[in-house]
Specification:
Blueprint: H1 2-22, E1 26-32, H2 38-48, E2 54-58, E3 64-70, H3 76-85, H4 97-101, H5 123-135, H6 148-162, H7 166-181, H8 190-211, H9 216-235, E4 243-248, E5 257-261, E6 280-285
Antiparallel strand pairs: 1-3, 2-3, 4-5, 4-6
Helix pairs in contact: 2-3, 6-7, 6-9, 7-8, 8-9
Length: about 290
């Protein structure tokens, strides 16, 4: 029995070592995340993981999770927010009631906390965060739609693809990822909140992939799967101006691919200058 335990410990150590090798600027934290079973383990880890950016290893017996992440691209709060949106409480963030209610019966753990923890920022942290947002031209105003910063960042990301600039696209993907993590869900309408809960993970996952590479062809591939959930949440949100849902029949190996634009004129993000005006408008969202 002792030999089996030692063997399992060695496998876990090798797994962690391998993960650390893949994630640059790696930082490791151990946190408690509430859950019950192996299904919980799969959901928690999938919600927190972003390839080459963040890895979560959760133990159903101890309820402890090991977070390994690239400290230059994310932090434990961002990982735990995604896990909370999937329905799982931690000592830092409480899952929304509707997310918890959607868990399978075997996954509905006893909730220790009764009220959400409100995390506060120091004045220095707040000033730094504000300046970072201004530098990326994505500043949130109190009277703006709570998702406007996400939509604006998406359109800027699309323009970087039109310019066929992989470095710029990676930088703008980071801006979008920051905007996604900063969404205040309590300010969303009921319809927007429901859709946001469904698409938030896919938005963050595909945006993270785009940030992690400067290969424009890979970025365009991830933009295909990013644009569908973005379309869903934009459709569920009231818009001040017309938004155009556009299509390129040549993209995605001839299968076609869509994107969203604030302009009616076609500017193709999948080919840039090679086929700038290739495509058509499928729908005008107002």
């Amino acid at each position: 029995m002792n030999s089996i335990k030692k063997w399992m410990a060695m496998i876990l150590l090798l797994s962690v070592t391998s993960c650390n090798a893949q994630i640059k600027n790696s930082k490791t934290e151990n946190v408690k995340i509430y859950g019950n079973c192996e299904m919980c383990e799969s959901t928690i880890e999938n919600a927190g993981n972003i390839k080459k950016v963040a890895s979560v290893d959760w133990d159903k017996d101890t309820k402890m999770a090991t977070l390994i992440y690239d400290s230059s691209k994310t932090n434990s709060d961002e990982i735990l927010k995604r896990i909370a949106l999937a329905g799982y409480d931690s000592d830092n963030f409480l899952a929304p009631d509707d997310a918890y209610a959607k868990l399978a019966e075997c996954c509905q753990y006893d909730r220790v906390k009764k009220t959400a923890i409100v995390k506060t920022e120091s004045m220095e942290d707040h000033a730094m965060h504000h300046q970072e947002m201004v530098n990326e031209n994505v500043e949130i105003k109190q009277d703006e739609h709570p998702l406007k910063v996400v939509f604006d960042a998406y359109f800027i990301l699309k323009d970087a693809l039109v310019a066929s600039d992989g470095t710029l696209t990676s930088a703008k993907a980071k801006t979008l990822l920051t905007a996604i993590d900063a969404v205040k869900m309590e300010k969303l309408t009921s319809e927007s909140h429901t859709v946001w809960m469904k698409v938030m993970k896919d938005l963050a996952l595909n945006t993270g992939h785009m940030e992690a590479t400067k290969d424009i062809s890979l970025q365009r591939t991830h933009f295909i799967t990013l644009s569908d959930p973005m379309y869903q949440i934009l459709k569920a949100s009231k818009q001040d101006t017309s938004i155009y849902y556009q299509h390129c029949p040549m993209a995605n190996n001839g299968k076609g691919a869509n994107w969203l634009s604030k302009e009616s004129a076609i500017k193709n993000p999948y080919y840039g200058a090679q086929m700038l005006t290739c495509g058509n408008t499928l729908e005008t969202i107002e």
